[in-house]
Amino acid sequence: MLRSLVGSEMCIRDRDNMEGRYSPSAHAQLVRSAVDGNMNVLRVWGGGVFLPDAFYDTADEVGMLVYHDMMYSTTTQSHIPHGSEQERQEIVHNVRRLSHHPSIFVWNACNECGGQGLYASFVMTAVAEQDWSRPIWPSCPSSGWSAGIQPLTGLPSGLPLHTLSKSTGIEAHGPYFNGNGWPAVNQAPANKLLVRDPHLPVQIDNGTLRGVQFRNVFGSEFGASVFSSFESMAPTLASQHWGVHGGEPKANCSTGDPSNSFWKVCSAVGENSPNPMAQRNYPCDDLIYGYFGIGQDLDATGEFPFKRQLYQCMVGQALSLKSDIEQRRNMNQFGLLTWQLNEIWPTGGWGSLEYGTVGWTPGQVLGGRWKPLHYLLKSSLYADVMATCGAGAACYVVNDGVKAVDAVVEISAISLRNSSTKPICSHTAQLPAGPGAIEYFTCPEFGALLPSKEIIFSSVVRGNSGGTLSEHTILAHTPANLTIPSDARVEMEVTGSAAATEFPVTVALSTDKVAVFVVLTTLAQGRFQENMFVLLPGVSKVVGFVPFEKFDEQEFRQTLRLEHLGMYM
After folding, report:
1. How far is 326 from 315, CA to CA, in rounded Å?
2. Which of 34, 347, 363, 407 has a C-alpha 20 to 30 A away from that of 233?
3. What burial class does residue 89 get, using C-beta atoms within 10 Å of its C-beta: 0-12 exposed, 13-18 middle, 19+ buried?
4. pLDDT band at 191 (very low <50, low <70, confident <90, very high)
């Protein structure tokens, strides 16, 4: 299965909104973080730029596939083709510059343009004239060509290009969980709060026909907007604005921006100062209210309130896409491209990685600090083999990898009241090679416990050698509707390089009560071995730290901090 945020798949934007700050090391680390997050395809988005050589070189090196748009998008008038000689030269230059990279497996004309008109007669015709070695595609998304390509390979035939007149539905964008509820340059729906269905427990349909021989869909763009960590965002704001509502009255963001179909023009109201959070992309009110309750104080400012709001926003994004992807992996979808992989500035966006340019704005990590979502993609959502349970006690285990797997699924119930863990079902499956090798089973005790507000669940899949293939926490209710312990005492101890083997530093964690969705954060360059996990009393938990370029152990020790749900409930 293809998977990422530009397959897993991910959609990638330009690494930085200021191209003069590009660095080879940041682009290389971005690709490595995608691979480590279990992605195998990155889509280069048409609303951005052709990327530096380091991105493509690293993709070649690590085996990352690249689904490549030309730099056109219908979201803004500055990104549509006019058929000029200058545009043709840019296309020719970049296709010649990049066509030797084996990582690029397909060219397409644009983002969400349909692929007709100049996109076919000018853009993709110019591409096909320069590169006959790989498939071409009209647009992302698209139904494909009716003429101009070889049907079995997608390679250019030399004949004029024409798109299919009827939609086949084989590639789709959306749905999107756009932020809303606070006036900002981006908001959907505009000027009102829409708290979306969290889809808990997940709906599982065991009647879906699975296999490449059946009708299937490539979901090449979907996502949830989100802010970044306190470490990334706080340096960009004066301390009086540390809050998702900026510590100022609402801005007036009712006027549409004529240059872009998504943007609003925001201005101060009356004698008020401009609200800085109106310029930070989408708000996060809907996710925070939806998962943590309408009573959350989003007007509060200061270090602790801002950390709480940003933690809840990022965990909300992770839970939103967790439900979405778990439903998609039960459907006949063999490509999942999350929108998007990376942020292009140290604020809000759609990424699972934060802004990753270092040396300019304090608080950033090379290639992007991993958000909670990226850790979930690694641990289960984009793992080749994963299992989950949902509504009606229905469960599945799926193998989208290239090898057959003998898997053992273990589902356990965790009591939030007394921190005990109880295995409730086990299922053994012999799964052929994927994609789409799936087996359904039921877990009656899971179904019986679903109504409880004092229970969460764990799913662990082990291979025949005993190694863990994937693991994750299953919620049947939003955190607002669970009895999360608020008084868990979590302790940390850092062990340094002298004693470490695989990692330069490790963090030993312990707790006296169950701590849900523990998130570790640091200013040090690197990422954690795992994150956004459940910590149980009496269970030894040691988390390693994977260093990036210019890792500093002292900085790690001085800036390491921990959060969990109970701190903020």
Report:
1. 16
2. 34
3. exposed
4. confident
